[in-house]
Fold 8-amino-7-ketopelargonate synthase.
Amino acid sequence: MNNNPYAWIEASLETIHRADWYRSVQTINSLPGATVLLSGQKVINFASNDYLGLAGDERLQTAAIKAIQQFGTGSTGSRLLSGHRELHRELEQAIASTKQTEDAVVFSSGYLANIGVITALIGKRDLILSDQYNHSSLKRGAVLSGAAVIEYPHNSTAVLAEKLSQQRQNHRRCLIMTDSVFSMDGDLCPLPELLDLAEEFSCMLLLDEAHATGVMGKTGAGCVEHFGCTGRELIQIGTLSKALGSLGGYVAASHTLIDFLRNRAPSWIYTTALSPADTAAALAAMKIVQQEPERRQRLWDNVNYLKQLIRDNLPNLKILPSESPILCFQLPDAATALTAGKHLKEVGIFAPAIRPPTVPTSRIRITMMATHELEHIEKLVNTLKGMQL
Ligand SMILES: *Cc1c(COP(=O)(O)O)cnc(C)c1O
């Protein structure tokens, strides 16, 4: 008998290798942007969540530096003890104003926001209905809550309605939860139908706008705005780390719900407040999102240009349905996706292979940025054409 209680880890890693599921980090040695230095090699960057190109923006840098000089690097405690600064409140008010909700609260990451909200609102006597393709943070939050969890097939409001009519009456509270832009596919949830079902069956609805904030909707408020659902009662979650170019997460909802979270969300109460630099950078980004709609327009022009080039040049490429700046090319297996990703990198294109267990089927995932130039997009399409995928 092998007595080493850690021996299983090496065996497990070997299995991961054999399945072509092994992952490791890659180093970027430059400012973030449409092109970056990846392990010293200049590449066109189709792998970033920095949709509006703000993570390297000088105005965000200046705001962060100023905040550090004024308030230091660490916030020194949780929000309820010594960590709260006026900057946090300004950021929360800017978020609530963009989302047109009564209030908002910022967390140290989007992941912590999801875990905090779900575990504060839902317990053992309750029911969670969760889209099969939801982000890991929603799924983990559901498990942590101790509630009964039912996953419904991706975007299937028919199955969701069926489960609700069968199960809703057996539980105290019910939470329906979904990504608004699905992060590994790029399609959108059917928000108006979900809101109607939530109303009909007396359920709360949690919408994760991580990839939608700053991107979707006329003013960049997200999919709620995109679908014309502004003002309807729901819980909006998002991140400060994607289009807003900083770090942190938020919840936007009614005054009562936010007040409750400040008293009951463990991942807000028992963790250190967002740093002054991250807070100030996100606040600067919120202002830019409002004041420079042309950035969002450039992002969508780029998305449409790529889609048009693909239609004209790559009729056989299997593209997953997308209504966002996330575009995925489906590939038969993990090994093919890895080879394709490697080849793209060799010619100077950074577009990662996404494989199980992150997603059910292997793919190359492209994210567009407002700051991509036409020639970046043309090089991508010409390279894919040469690869005969
Ligand atoms: C990225 C992401 C998160 C997590 O946000 P972080 O701020 O990076 O922790 C949550 N939900 C979705 C859908 C995401 O894509």
